[in-house]
Amino acid sequence: MFFKLDLSKRRLPDNEQLLYKIAQARRMQNRNSLDEKLKDQTLQEKTIGGKNIFPQDQTAQDNNVQKKSPCGCQKCFSKDDKFLMSCFNPSIEPFLSASSRLSLDVFMWWKRLQYERRNFNYYKTAVANLFAVFPPVPDLRKPSPGKCRTCAVVGNSVNLRGSGYGSLIDGHDIVIRMNGGPTTGYEKDVGTKTTHRVLYPESAVDLDNSTHLIVFAFKIQDLEWPTKALTTGFYTTAYMRIIDSAKTLLLVMVVNPAFMKYVHEIWMKRRGKYPSTGFMTLILSLHICDEVHVFGFGADSNGNWSHYFEVLKKKNYRTGPHSGTNEYAILKRLASEQTVTLYKGS
Q1: In the CATH hierarchy, which fold is given to the domain comprising 7-343?
Q2: pLDDT tens by residue, 56-79
Q3: Phi, psi (degrees; rounded to nearest 5) at 59
Q4: Mind telling me the catalytic residues?
Q5: 51, 89, 144, 238: most buried by Cβ count inside 10 Å?
Q6: What are the binding residues for substrate?
Q7: 144-163 as b/e, with b when 16 or more CB fall inside 10 Å?
Q8: pLDDT category, 17, cuts 50, 70, 90?
């Protein structure tokens, strides 16, 4: 569903108003980052070898310090998750930031996804304009030995229908939903809580001012969309509105094209033209969460890929440019090694 900006009911912010909102948002982000550092300072002082990505694999011998896990969950990701470790790249940046440097090689791969015709310099200009408005780094909770970032990754599969998973989904700290997947009318099966909504502009739906917007950009126009939707509007395509508040500025995150390429080449072994939004979100969750629970993925019992909120009209519908069968096989392997928990639905 597409939504147009209704500019008749609101006054466009002038330059001074926009600059004030940007400064206010950045002050909020800096204050939150300082609070997190102060909270974790004591734990960090007691951690040995802080550069280790998985400190639970390191033995700390100290009379006053007990061995600590990198998170507060019962099970954190570790080298025992063999399949995860064979693909996982902790150095990859999941989200774009003002300091991100995309290689020409990655750009050439990315521009072929939807036949982008503009060049690398145009891309770099679009990213610079993006971070002239939005905060230079994404708003992410960092891992901590005393915290467990539990995530529910909620797909749109028809297998959610009749599942009764609603309250289970809502019990997680982070609930990530895909594209336009609705909750109203489906609360018993899919829950009501949404902390993050994954979108690409053509799949956009209205969001409130407390939901993080995770943008999957497949072309340069998608990178221009958040800024234009906040400032001048989009007149050529009916993209969703972004509420122009200082808080909303902190809640917009754009997935790094290098991360998308990493998922396609390392996790998918180049199967399919490019991974689905749902699969890329699954891998994204492994980078930003400590414990991952997956709902609403996979085909129905007849092998059809349909949505819980739709009546399937076309049988034998498949997954277009995505390799749905291989994506689901990878998910099942992660579940079999207890890296993630998979709920298969009704």
Answers
A1: sialyltransferase cstii, chain A (3.90.1480)
A2: 333 333 333 335 677 889 888 988
A3: -90, 120
A4: 274, 322
A5: 144
A6: 114, 156, 179, 239, 274, 278, 298, 307, 322
A7: bbebbbbbbbbbbbbbbbeb
A8: low
